[in-house]
Amino acid sequence: MSSNKFRQADRIYDELLVIRCRAGEAKAFELLVARWQPRLLRVALVICRDRQLAEDLVQDSWITAVRKLGTLRDPASFGFWLIRIVNNRCMDALKSRNTEPQAPPAAEPAHMPGEVENGEAITEVLKLLDTRHRAVLALHYLQDLEVNEIAMVLDIPPGTVKSRLHHAREAFRKKFTELTAYVSREA
User: Fold this and answer.
1) Is the model more confident about 148 or about 106?
2) Total number of domains in the chain
3) End position of a domain, from candidates 73, 101, 129
């Protein structure tokens, strides 16, 4: 089965669960949480860079989703709608802090030289990017969303998504090169 068919099947399953939730079936809500909680937490962690804050924001997002489930026009788009709620909560929380969470300077990674392997380096680099870049990369690579889907989640034109993805990849590439060069020099 192709990736597109899997997505379509997932959306249909979500649609059925949403319909069952609207009918008051608690088990359907439990299944939605089990399906979406890990994905939502990954997105929130990448955007916020703070585990406790990410967990709190995802929890708040679920509360909002439960309250507003009746307003969701297309139950098949539940996943996009839910990710959008999480993204908005994260962006609002970071704005209310009035600053980006502190990240280690590019020249001084959080890990000691020699400890950084590719997975850790990727995590470190994501911490160095600005919120908009982290968000678009998380949606594209962690949630495997396509440009049009990201546009729906972020409520921006597809062209803006393409531009942000391009700039985010460039920023990521530059910071990754700097970090790995630093680690190589120190090793």
Assistant:
1) 148
2) 2
3) 101
